[in-house]
Write a structure and sequence with these properties.
Elements: H1 2-20, E1 29-35, H2 58-70, E2 73-75, H3 78-83, E3 90-98, H4 107-113, E4 117-121, H5 123-128, H6 133-143, H7 148-158, H8 163-174, H9 191-198, E5 203-207, H10 220-238, E6 244-246, H11 254-262, E7 267-269, E8 276-277, H12 282-285, E9 291-292, H13 299-307, H14 312-320
Parallel strand pairs: 1-3, 1-9, 2-3, 3-4, 4-5, 6-7
Antiparallel strand pairs: 1-8
Helix pairs in contact: 6-7, 6-8, 10-11
Amino acid sequence: MLKSLMKQGLNAVDDLALAADRRAQAPDTLVNVLFHSLYESPAHLGKGELGPNQDVTVADFRGFVEEMLESGYTVVSPAQIDAGLPPGGRYLTITFDDGYFNNTLALGVLNEFRAPATFFISTDHVRQNKAFWWDAFSRALARSGATPGEQKIEIERVKTWTPEKIDAFLCERFGPSVLKPHSDVDRPFTPPELRQFALNPWVHLGNHTRDHAILTNCTPGQMAHQIESCQHALAEMVGYRPIVIAYPNGNHSPSAVRAAQDAGLRVGFTVAPHSEQLPLSDASRMTLGRFLFFGGQDIRRQCRLFSARFVPSHALKRLMHPAY
């Protein structure tokens, strides 16, 4: 009850800030938005195949793209960001993290609106057909009666570990089959599927480390290995090395940024909820913020908040999670 009241209060304060904002949708702005999974329709929500997530359907995604385009945004690729965005515009980057096969559901919208999107791939999940650990853990906890809120608490606790420790913990507690995907909803791409997906002219791939390693849990040597291994695997699977990385969970550090740059990456995304003012500096281009979009919520309101100068709930999140 208290958490719900706090959320309602923050929403009300956000709306007041938005009403007072005279610079919403200002020019010389880059807005980056983060998705993970897509559901084909509302009927697929709540089946428990994925951990607690953004609950975005294809219809939600189409509505988001339509709203941002109608608000005057131009959708851009990482290469365009790297080259320098022309002054005077409002720009949008659409991103998907992890490498879920269900991301293929975005293609109809991207083709329809001729909008580029960047998909960040955790390559060992693709190569090994391994479920993403947070989905596997969430399913196992749900079977034991844990609520979605309890699942989130457990997932946050385990996030502080290395990928090897997480996999070992899950297999020991629930058995080795725990990391086997259930269906097309929760599984990653296969290498041939990813290769075919990458041929779409609106699809751009990015580095999301070999094992979805939260880099601030790693030594500098482990950081470099996770990033370079992903670069090498993507070159083998799709024929090119990306120029862009999304730091898993958004966590980054000067060592992580240096490791990314040493691997040839020139654009980097966090999950700090803020837009970027243009022109970008070399430093800001490697630590770009991103907003989360949620399905089942007011699309126009969310898009307006992405464009606002100051949003209290976003500022609070940045304060609570400085590693973003």
